[in-house]
Amino acid sequence: MNADLPPAALADLGELRDRLRRFAQERDWDQFHSPKNLSMALIAEAAELVEHFQWLTEEESRALPPDARAKVADELADVLVYLVRIADRLDIDLLAATERKLADNEAKYPAARVRGSAKKYSDY
Amino acid sequence: MNADLPPAALADLGELRDRLRRFAQERDWDQFHSPKNLSMALIAEAAELVEHFQWLTEEESRALPPDARAKVADELADVLVYLVRIADRLDIDLLAATERKLADNEAKYPAARVRGSAKKYSDY
Amino acid sequence: MNADLPPAALADLGELRDRLRRFAQERDWDQFHSPKNLSMALIAEAAELVEHFQWLTEEESRALPPDARAKVADELADVLVYLVRIADRLDIDLLAATERKLADNEAKYPAARVRGSAKKYSDY
Amino acid sequence: MNADLPPAALADLGELRDRLRRFAQERDWDQFHSPKNLSMALIAEAAELVEHFQWLTEEESRALPPDARAKVADELADVLVYLVRIADRLDIDLLAATERKLADNEAKYPAARVRGSAKKYSDY
Fold first, then answer.
1. Model confidence, pTM
2. Span C54-107, pLDDT tens digits
3. CB contact under 8 A, D52 and C39
4. Residue B90: how many CB atoms within 10 A of its CB?
5. How far apart are the CA of D10 and the nearest CA of chain C, in angstroms?
6. Contact partners, residue D109, CB within 8 Å, separation at least 6
7. Which residues of B touch D56 (CB under 8 A)?
8. Which 3 state secondary structure label does DSSP give C87?
9. Burial B105-114 (b: 16+ CB within 10 A, else e)
10. What chain D residue is nearest to C83 in terms of C-alpha separation?
11. ipTM at complex level
């Protein structure tokens, strides 16, 4: 990487996948990046996110001060990194899989039936 | 949503964010979607991913049969959905946060120093 | 196991460890019970616990209806099973380790200093 | 607590429950210890356990060096603390719940049927 230039901004998930792929290859880390290991790394990062919120009220979690918000942004990025990495190692198209999931959810929870009901929500 | 048309393919994370936002609003579910609650939902989905791999060897996790791979794709989608949703609720730009994280990681783990060393890797 | 008799009640963690050890041996499952795999199984069970609470308010989580409470008891048991199993596989005395941790916590959070302060609590 | 005396050794889970109860009361922390929040704290500790193992092979996880083993013991203790605390807050008898779970598992996985079969194991 040319030290004179800032890293190019990420345009999309495809570019992120490519950056992460190159990052692992340059360090010879693919050997550690089995889907099994990556799933462990992902949940460890997800837990750091949970940790930020564990003693906050829901209300407090909606209105984070700037420094907490920056840390949460960091944890979200860590989760995304491992998510994209697992998808790449298994040759899964993340957006296509999510597209299917959205269609499923829209069929499973019709707005007209579940709207505004906490009870119904938690029953699903 | 027009039942005659398939849902449009997801072009990018911005579109996913918008779809999820609309999905929650149509169901009046924003009240449940505090960042605190969403972080719990995210880690529950991450754990379903882990569950797929817990009794597999690393080698097996690299070579999933098609049906297992489809289930894993599903879990990855679930994680992405909550990830994008939390970012949206906190007004965080997920790709920008990830861009910063990549730059940090590239500085923290210079390829020339860490290449090919399991020991160094696990020390980080 | 004699089918005419109910299983003996568990007296303590040592007996639980012995029951689990025998259970795995009789099924030849020790080969799957590496600490790595068991840590994955443990967090998957912990996530099922989290899932029970994710859309509840804190208040609701304090006052579970009987059926939800029974399910939570089940998840807690699952976590304990894997916890005791990992400790056994690594020859760790769980109560002794916890005793040390309590002493640490008592030193780290002196009651006189932290009492009644949410702010201080979340700062720790 | 009398600073001249070491903390008494933990005899059993009941004593641990009582120590933790007193610990929270002395600090006025029961207000933060809703089952919801405690489940988040528990999974965050479980993830620290996972983190110790994420880049290790299964074989390495079975043969931890002493310092890693001590850290793992610490994480196990953290999980146990929150587990006992949640059970107490919901008035659940942890050993009795585990006793029921063991009986279920013994019925669900008869040794004669599942012995020595990885395939069968991962199918359950």
1. 0.92
2. 999 999 999 999 999 999 999 999 999 999 999 999 999 999 999 999 999 999
3. yes
4. 18
5. 6
6. C27, D124
7. 122
8. helix
9. beeebebeeb
10. D76
11. 0.90
